[in-house]
Design a protein that fits this description.
heterodimer, A: eight-stranded mixed β-sheet, four-stranded mixed β-sheet, 14 helices, 36% helix, B: 298 residues, mainly alpha
Chain lengths: 432, 298
């Protein structure tokens, strides 16, 4: 079991927690002078078929997509998972069998191992640009730092979601797919759950640092004050804290009937243990931290039953124990079969939700009639006006606009019960 | 009042682990004048080896712990053999001459140990089943868990055991003699090279025991080492270099300060607690609370 959790943790902590959904990084290359005849975005990917194939006869136009991330070291699993999924999708698209059709285009994947070092990511991004690869996808925490120098030059960039909601800032970080709900979407979804359970007084516990401040701010933003909800305790703590007994006492004395807990790594289980020791049954809303705590899966189910996280619908199981969005379940199994995955660890790291990224790229290229950054920008930012774009299933929509590059739609995110599902590793049970 | 007492419980619990790491530092420092900066990593070794033997291989808890601390001791002996002993040969064997280079080589050793364990165990936090029932005793509102009692109790027992070893055993007396005058001890028949190995082994065992004690709280996490290396060092400095009792006092002082700052400071002040305490101690009482002043005629 520990192996399962370890693998799951690696993938979720990296590909999930803060960097779950990659970024679509479009490096502009002095191409804004080209006319931009924007094609309207469509609600369903199938409608994009042959929408904007190259008009000139001849060999297919090759679109080079560069995947930059840590392919070695402790975070390698997230990059390798994405590499697999990108290649899987591009192979299908190139063969004309993908969910999104792109006749006239051949997609080529290039990968660069930046070792989770921001400066290397930046170097690779610039090299890719000079080599004519205008579409970059960055994976990893460190890559966030790499984005800024590109942005300052006026180039279009995107990155992981770290700190929360940074990807929504259209002036800085365009085009996250944001399928992993470690942001205000996830917090809002859990607030809805809290309201349904009558939880109104919250204690907000968060590690020290700017990243966690973002989460604290998001809780405040999402707090349904008009329904009488309030924050009765805000407690920050050093990430190295290993004994939470006094903090749990403060929570109990505050009269809180629900707890938000934002941390990663060992403090998560230390806090959970302190709550257990106090025999507390307060619901713990944990937008992302518990997902970085694979070890927490070993805690008693009776305790975990009131620990909540948030996920997009594409990663949730319904009350019957099957995926809420059947298409994602089926496609996930296809992925497992294609790559011959048998261990739960490997399966947990490879879900069909990842396919939305390369399909999003393919879709945008088709819409833009190539990889001209200005036209890609128009394609992405036109999705809000057209009602969003879907790939594997019409119920999962992405929307970008000139002011919000967050991609994933808030209503698509739901609260889930924290727990590991052996049959569907990578999927969590929707909380209701 | 309940909150204050709860903070005391919290502080003493974590302070107990700091104290054990500080004792580990002291065991080596007192006899060899070497600050073994890999000491914190041995806590991690203790945690992960206990995890390996108990959680992965399914051993009973006691033999798993025993094996884990032996490994921690052996790792520290390896550090002594490969990172400290060669310095003596290169630098002419003077204890004072190897102190500074050993500072660097043991820091390097800590990185090697960390990388090796990350390579083996990965960077994920691995689950560790509790030794005891999770429910805490409720003492008029103050919660004291069995795990907390175990951590404090283990620290006291280990420190007392080491104290007895140092005072009453031949090897312990030899180490004490080396602490005062290495050359003189050698002239009186103390096998100083062997004693240094014993000191490193003991320090490794003590830090390994600290890891064993804290494992159910932190779980098996390769990133533990640096934090405890720093906190243990600060605890030693507060208590007094070379003082076993001082290590206990220093650990408790640091743990309590941190707990109070966490409980009443409501922010990340705890991060700075150790540095603040270190600054105050070095300014007011450089030899630490219980450190002895040594006067030498030169």
């Amino acid at each position: 079991m520990s192996t399962i959790l370890q693998g799951r943790f690696r993938r979720r902590a990296v590909a999930g927690t803060a960097l779950s959904m990659a970024a679509l990084l479009l490096v502009a290359a002095c191409s804004s002078s080209k006319s931009s005849s924007s094609t309207a975005t469509t609600a369903a990917a199938s409608a994009t078929t042959a929408a904007a194939a190259p008009t000139t006869a001849g060999p297919p136009k090759t679109i080079t997509v560069t995947l930059i991330g840590p392919f070695t070291g402790p975070f390698a699993s997230s990059s390798t998972s994405l590499q697999k999924v990108f290649q899987y999708v591009f192979d299908q698209v190139n063969a004309g069998t993908g969910v999104v059709k792109a006749p006239g285009y051949t997609f080529k994947l290039v990968t660069n191992d930046d070792g989770n070092v921001a400066s290397k990511a930046l170097d690779f991004a610039r090299t890719a640009q000079s080599n004519g690869s205008h579409i970059l996808n960055l994976v990893g925490h460190a890559e966030v730092d790499a984005v800024q120098p590109l942005t300052s030059t006026g180039q279009m960039v995107g990155t992981m979601e770290d700190p929360p909601d940074v990807d929504r800032d259209a002036t800085t970080y365009p085009y996250s797919f944001d399928f992993y709900a470690n942001d205000i979407d996830g917090i809002t979804a859990q607030m809805r759950l809290a309201a349904s359970k009558g939880v109104k007084k919250f204690a907000v516990l968060a590690g020290a640092g700017d990243q966690y401040q973002g989460y604290v701010d998001d809780v405040t933003k999402a707090l349904p004050t008009d329904a009488g909800a309030s924050i009765v305790l805000t407690q920050r703590f050093d990430p190295n804290t290993s004994d939470f007994s006094s903090i749990v006492t403060k929570v109990q004395q505050s009269g809180a009937d629900g707890v938000w807990f934002f941390a990663t790594g060992s403090p998560v289980q230390s806090f959970f243990q302190a709550m257990q020791a106090a025999n507390s049954s307060l619901p713990i809303f944990n937008a992302f931290g518990s997902l970085t705590c694979a070890a927490c899966f070993a805690l008693p189910a009776s305790f975990l039953s009131h620990v909540y996280v948030a996920f997009p619908k594409s990663s949730l199981l319904g009350s019957d124990g099957t995926p809420l969005v059947a298409a994602y379940g089926t496609e996930t199994q296809n992925l497992w079969t294609h790559f011959g995955l048998t261990s739960l660890t490997d399966k947990a790291g490879l879900g069909a939700g990842l396919e939305d990224i390369p399909y999003g790229i393919v879709w945008a290229v088709v819409q833009a009639g190539g990889d001209d950054p200005a036209k890609l920008k128009t394609a992405f930012e036109g999705t809000t006006a057209s009602g969003g774009v879907s790939f594997l299933d019409p119920s999962i929509k992405y929307e970008w606009s000139s002011t919000d590059h967050g991609g994933y739609e808030t209503p698509n995110v739901e609260a889930a019960v924290f727990g590991f599902n052996v049959k569907w590793p990578g999927f969590f049970a929707a909380a209701s | 009042m309940v909150l204050f007492l709860q903070a005391v419980v919290s502080g003493l619990t974590i302070g107990a682990i700091y104290a054990l790491v500080a004792v580990g530092y002291n065991v080596v420092y007192a006899s060899t004048q070497v600050f073994n900066l890999a000491q914190g990593m041995l806590v991690m070794v203790g945690v992960l080896m206990t995890y390996e033997f108990r959680e992965v291989m399914g051993w009973q808890t006691v033999p798993a712990i025993a094996a884990a601390v032996v490994v921690a001791g052996l790792v520290n002996v390896a550090i002594e053999r490969f990172c400290v002993a060669p310095l003596g040969r290169v630098r002419g064997g003077s204890q004072h001459h190897i102190a500074l280079p050993a500072f660097v080589t043991t820091l390097g050793a800590s990185l090697v140990v960390l990388d090796a364990y990350e390579l083996i165990f990965g960077s994920a936090i691995l689950p560790f089943h509790p030794y005891f029932n999770a429910r805490a005793f409720n003492l008029k509102g103050v919660l004291v868990s069995r795990q907390q009692l175990f951590m404090v109790g283990a620290a006291l027992v280990i420190v007392l055991a080491y104290h007895a070893f140092a005072k009453y055993s031949r090897w312990g007396l030899g180490l004490s003699a080396m602490a005062q005058n290495r050359e003189g001890a050698a002239l009186r028949g103390v096998p100083v090279a062997g004693a240094r190995i014993v000191a490193f082994a003991l320090a490794g065992v003590i830090s390994g025991l600290a890891g064993m004690a804290i494992a159910p709280v932190t779980y098996a996490d390769t990133t533990l080492g640096f934090n405890y290396a720093l906190k243990g060092f600060v605890a030693m400095a507060i208590g007094g270099f070379g003082s076993t009792t001082g290590a206990l006092v220093g650990g408790a002082a640091l743990g309590l300060t941190e707990a109070m700052l966490v409980t009443y400071g409501n922010d990340q002040w705890r991060i700075y607690a150790s540095l603040l305490l270190l600054l105050v101690i070095f300014t007011v009482r450089p030899r630490g609370l219980l450190g002895r002043q040594t006067i030498r005629t030169v």
